[in-house]
User: Which sequence fits this backbone?
């Protein structure tokens, strides 16, 4: 049996302490889960173990011997393999080629394919897996790709294997297939560190769970005989959830009605209504269909069925064009690739959703463009000296404000915010919340999707909970704690 | 101290922004003093006339490249348009439906209509099946050339009325070349569309990031089809001008013109990645190539050498743009 010990590790970034004197250990022969909410420091710890970061203070030890890691390739050489959630496979090459890439069996200058395939087959047999070795990886399922990644990592005979959220892109049945392989790994003398945000998986696959909170190690739980509440307590501590300003009123008038929306396999039979001025949150784990639902209602993706009634007008087949005309706005979760045109100016971007308004008769009115752009730069305090500068001159938070400003220029009745606070700092986050509240005061409703549950509790009037593409409940922020909301999101089986 | 630095920065920024214009001016100045017969009205109008054919299409290609697409079939389309105009004019006259003098109008209309249909087809394949326009138009280059050769049976068609020569070789008030008028009109129209209309803003947005444009409520399909149609219609017009110039239509017209056209647009600062470019820059690019060509002719440089010089010019233009962009990014990061 071998042990990886983390001793007193501290890592600081400008403005935050990501890890504060963390000491813990992981043993071989079991699945060691590492959990914590966003920003808890778990990904920083993973990156220190695999050499992507160097700690400011503290050390690592493997079986009592100090482990000094210079960089990721050094870590790899010292027996630490990482399987990332985003795939590193080459789609056009076969399974065997991917597993043994760079280490093909050769005869002189030529690859000996016969022996290469035999070697790959031996690796699969060893782990009790059956995969089509000659199939190009692009024809495989997501879970099969994950399996190839793990086999590839194991073929280097590592002492430590880090699995970074391997199930996040998998459907439920696929997860089971992957778990079978992970259980097989336990028989080898390898330290398995399993990073996840899916709490419900822990009792299925993990033997122990190590919990981090705000850069501190808060406890280690043996899965046998424990309950979700034991872990939730360690994950959230005693957080004080802030609540929205008291003056936000909801009127009785319904502004948006969503009926029987279905897009298999993402979501099924979703219906809800939204009142004027209301801020509605949608909570759910990654893969619960939250983002897909917003995109479906906005018409960004085709749905199987469903109708939208916006401000009394029924829209049969929504498209971004018809929905934005009808008064719906959508700020996508990935602002760089979906929300903005990076090569164009701030001013151009601010006018992309209101081209009708700034170009009466088809001709762009330069004065209107400057007015519309300047209005949002002022109202949202977008930090720039000149709005004709390119988007790339802005920070993440200010870019997000441009996405919001672009839609405010279109005078919407309802705004969908998909992960509005992703990748922006605390100050900018509060400013975005202020914008959402201000819109509510003007009678504009919002739907907010966020994986940060405390944000939903802070911002919204009402929260709908989604699990595996279905609505499973509805709560008010004032009636619920963050632990309760979390367990509702991950599934009811409280033991 | 401070004001001095500000002016310095402004000067360097201005010189970077108008680099092409400055280089062009220097070359022109050098030619004025060294090249025999360069600085004469006749020669300057000659340059303008010579760049008309590729110039007219270049403005369409600017829209296409800014919109994030490309059209490699425009050269063949010049030939098809010229062949169609001459053949239809001849056929109408032979059948006794219309004399050549008026029949040529119908023929020109048909040629432009065919250009429009080719553009629609390219745009349809692009937007419906998501095939890159590089491949679509590479294939269509062959189809269009073959069609033109088939219709003309490989021979030049000369059934065109005498007045038609005016379109391609006429002179306004006895001096100003008529084809240059078409060039200026097309420049003006495309300049207005790309800089002053809503559609122009949409082309930039679609080329810069199609997904963001789509989610902003812009009709990406429509924009892409319209730009693919525009460049083909302009290629058809170039075919009409060329057939007027030489008073015949042949499928070999315009072979390889796509290189000239795309070169001018790229020298003018338009990015192949889409979203970046200026119509004015393309105009400068056209004149630039025209002046260099003319200068080389005046100095008696041979055709083969001209190809080499032109090739390196394109390389240097792109290299220069790339280095400038990279240094801008570095400056931003170091800030």
Assistant:
């Amino acid at each position: 049996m071998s042990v990886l010990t983390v001793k007193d590790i501290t890592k600081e970034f400008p403005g935050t302490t990501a890890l504060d004197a963390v000491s813990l250990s992981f043993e071989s022969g079991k699945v060691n889960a590492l959990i914590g909410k966003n920003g808890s420091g778990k990904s920083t710890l993973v990156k220190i173990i695999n050499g992507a970061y160097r700690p400011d203070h503290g050390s690592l030890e493997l079986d009592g011997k100090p482990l000094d890691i210079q960089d990721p390739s050094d870590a790899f050489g010292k027996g630490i393999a990482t399987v990332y959630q985003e795939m590193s496979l080459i789609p056009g090459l076969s399974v065997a080629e991917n597993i043994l890439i760079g280490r093909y069996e050769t005869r002189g200058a030529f690859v000996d394919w016969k022996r290469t395939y035999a070697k790959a087959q031996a690796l699969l047999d060893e782990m009790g897996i059956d995969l089509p070795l000659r199939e190009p990886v692009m024809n495989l399922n997501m879970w099969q790709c994950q399996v190839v990644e793990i086999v590839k990592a194991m073929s280097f005979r590592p002492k430590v294997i880090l699995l970074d959220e391997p199930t996040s892109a998998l459907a439920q049945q696929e997860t089971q297939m992957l778990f079978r392989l992970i259980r097989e790994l336990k028989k080898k003398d390898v330290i398995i560190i399993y990073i996840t945000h899916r709490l419900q998986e822990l009792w299925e696959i993990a033997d122990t769970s190590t919990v981090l909170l705000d850069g501190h190690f808060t406890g280690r739980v043996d899965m046998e005989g424990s309950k979700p509440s034991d872990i939730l307590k360690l994950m959230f501590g005693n957080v004080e959830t802030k609540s929205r300003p008291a003056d936000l009123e909801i009127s009785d008038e319904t502004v948006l009605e969503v009926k029987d929306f279905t897009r298999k396999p993402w979501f099924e039979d979703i219906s809800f209504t939204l009142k004027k001025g209301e801020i509605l949150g949608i909570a759910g784990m990654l893969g619960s269909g939250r983002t897909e639902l917003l995109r479906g209602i906005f018409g960004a993706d085709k749905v199987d069925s469903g109708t939208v009634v916006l401000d009394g007008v029924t829209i049969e087949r929504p498209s971004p064009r018809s929905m934005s005309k009808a008064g719906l706005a959508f700020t996508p979760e990935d602002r760089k690739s979906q929300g903005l045109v990076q090569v164009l100016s701030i001013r151009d971007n601010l006018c992309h959703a209101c081209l009708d308004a700034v170009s009466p008769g088809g001709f762009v009115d330069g004065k209107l463009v400057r007015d519309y752009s300047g209005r949002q730069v002022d109202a949202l305090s977008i930090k720039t000296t000149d709005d004709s500068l390119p988007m790339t001159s802005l920070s993440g938070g200010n870019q997000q404000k441009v996405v919001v400003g672009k839609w405010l220029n279109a005078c919407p009745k309802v705004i969908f915010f998909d992960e509005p606070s992703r990748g922006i700092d605390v100050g900018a986050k509060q400013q975005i919340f202020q914008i959402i509240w201000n819109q509510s005061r003007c009678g504009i409703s919002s739907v907010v999707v966020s994986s940060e549950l405390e944000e939903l509790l802070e911002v919204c009037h009402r929260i709908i909970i989604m699990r595996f593409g279905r609505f499973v409940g509805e709560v008010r922020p004032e009636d619920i704690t963050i632990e309760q909301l979390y367990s509702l999101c991950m599934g009811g089986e409280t033991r | 101290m401070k004001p001095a630095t500000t002016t310095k920065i402004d000067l360097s920024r201005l010189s970077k922004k108008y680099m092409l214009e400055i280089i062009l001016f220097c070359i022109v100045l050098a030619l004025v003093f060294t090249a025999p017969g360069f600085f004469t009205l006749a020669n300057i109008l000659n340059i303008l006339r010579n760049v008309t054919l590729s110039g007219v299409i270049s403005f369409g290609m600017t829209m296409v490249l800014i919109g994030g697409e490309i059209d490699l079939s425009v050269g063949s389309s010049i030939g098809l348009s010229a062949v169609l105009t001459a053949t239809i004019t001849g056929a109408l006259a032979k059948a006794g439906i219309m004399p050549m003098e008026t029949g040529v109008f119908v023929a020109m209309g048909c040629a432009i209509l065919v250009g429009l249909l080719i553009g629609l087809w390219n745009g349809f394949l692009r937007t419906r099946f998501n095939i890159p326009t590089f491949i679509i138009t590479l294939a269509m280059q062959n189809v269009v050339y073959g069609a033109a050769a088939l219709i003309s049976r490989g021979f030049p068609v000369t059934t065109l009325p005498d007045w038609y020569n005016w379109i391609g070789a006429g002179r306004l008030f006895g001096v100003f070349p008529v084809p240059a008028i078409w060039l200026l009109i097309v420049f003006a129209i495309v300049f207005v569309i790309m800089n002053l209309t809503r559609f122009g803003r949409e082309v930039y947005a679609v080329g810069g990031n199609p997904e963001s444009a789509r989610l902003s409520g812009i009709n990406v399909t429509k924009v892409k089809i319209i730009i693919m149609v525009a460049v083909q219609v302009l290629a058809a017009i170039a075919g009409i001008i060329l057939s007027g110039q030489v008073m015949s239509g042949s499928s070999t017209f315009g072979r390889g013109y796509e290189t000239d056209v795309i070169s001018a647009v790229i020298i003018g600062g338009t990015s192949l990645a889409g979203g970046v470019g200026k119509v004015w820059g393309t105009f400068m690019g056209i004149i630039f190539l025209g002046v260099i060509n003319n200068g080389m002719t005046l100095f008696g440089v041979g055709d083969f050498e001209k190809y080499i010089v032109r090739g390196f010019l394109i390389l240097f233009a792109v290299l220069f743009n790339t280095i400038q962009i990279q240094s801008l990014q570095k400056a931003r990061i170091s800030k």
Remarks:
- The domain at 3-236 of chain A is CATH 3.40.50.300 (Rossmann fold).
